[in-house]
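## Example pair
The file below holds two records. Each record gives the amino-acid sequence first, followed by its structure token line.
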Amino acid sequence: MLAESGRSVNIFYGVPMKILSAEFILSADGLSRCPKEGLPEVAFAGRSNVGKSSLINVLINRKRLARTSNTPGRTQLINFYRINDSIFFVDLPGYGYAKVPLPVKKKWGPLVESYLGGSNHLRGVVVILDIRREPAEEDLMLMEWLSDRSISWCGVLTKADKVSRSAALARERHIKNSLHIPEGRLVVFSAKTGQGKDALWRFIVEVRGS
């Protein structure tokens, strides 16, 4: 069963943050190479090809700042984007793609875990799932890992526009129940329509200030 985080964060619908600036800063291959500016960080994690880059671009009203690719597993480093000179969005390598070479897979695990467990500026994690797919063991392990360490997180079901409204509601209910996700910790999102954008920004703003 998924344990609740020690720091509960509720999600409310509201006005998203106004984006004044958004820029790529660097790609890091280890914790020691992450930015030293001391800004709060919100990380984005999920399996390869769940729409992570598209989600980030929609949040910051940019079309191609976070690089999207038709080839899953392309992101192999930790990418940092500075938003409004006040927060870092941290794009973590996607996991679970079968065609990625084994040595690369073995490197990703320690890289991501060292960042999530070692960053002094991490405020929360957005865990991204494809609404059309069954959550994988890696997804559950990540949520449990974050909860066990009292790291605030929010689950996001992307690609909601790919299914009907009734199917989206059914999938949301199924995934929430199967993973025992607490009430108010799951957002249905569409990069195409912007559904869920406000709710996700509310989570980001709340954890940034905590």
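Second record, same layout:
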Amino acid sequence: MATRIRLQRHGKKGKPFFHLVAADSRAKRDGKFIEKLGTYNPTANPAVIDINFEATLNWVQTGAEMSDTARAILSYKGVLYKNHLLNGVKKGALTAEQVEEKFALWLADKDAKVQNKVSGLAKNAEKEKIARQQAEEAAKIAKAAEVAAKNAPVVEEVAEEVAEEAVEVATEEVVEEAPVAEAAAEEAPAVEEVVEETPAVEEAPVAESTEEAAPEASEESAAE
């Protein structure tokens, strides 16, 4: 019976989630399996892989076949590299201590790369957020300018209408005041005529009456 390390699909539509299993190569993809070796979530960035390292390494050493995706996952997690180093021990090229030392260095380098990727993704996400905010602000400014440009003719028309109404009102006031001025001008000669027609006070009779009274007074004084 040939054993094959492969993936079993789980999860909802559009959100796949896989189990890494060792199964009979004749079994269906999502059928029975011999042992579950781990999980794989490709929807995360970076992808989340959690495996039983020792059990998976044991299946690889016993000659289990691997699907292409399973091989890529095991290479990423260092299972294939550790198997390569252990084969060097079997051939006498390496010691167990050297294998552990080399593998520890490989793990440290791998973890550093993963952390750099995570940091880079976080920075890119922050830059994208800032870029989106700036784009939104620019869009708001452009929209405001467009609205202002559309409203400008309306404002000018309103100003013109207000100016025209002011001119009309002023013209009406002038027209209304004109007859009054004309009437005043027409009444002015009539007043002058009334003044001319008024007889002057005759002071002569008063003087004459005074003179007439004076002789009478002198005659009376002579008789006495």
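Notes on the second record: The CA atoms of residues 10 and 172 lie 88 Å apart. The radius of gyration is 59 Å.
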